[in-house]
Amino acid sequence: MKYRENRRTHDLIGEIGIGSAYISEAGEKEGIKAFQTVFHAGIVTNAVRSE
After folding, report:
1. Which of the listed residues 13, 15, 24, 36 has the most CB atoms within 10 Å of its CB?
2. Which residues contact residue 7 at a Cβ distance below 8 angstroms, ignoring those fewer than 6 apart?
3. Host domain of residue 13
């Protein structure tokens, strides 16, 4: 996963992220599968990593 530095806060932010605003519209099984899929692909749902 590649990260970029936020110039103001110096947090590292993932170049690829997935929003989760509409995940509640999916059924429980579909939502869990979606999060498992992106997790195993290395995509983050909360795209900020602090060190």
Report:
1. 13
2. none
3. 3-49
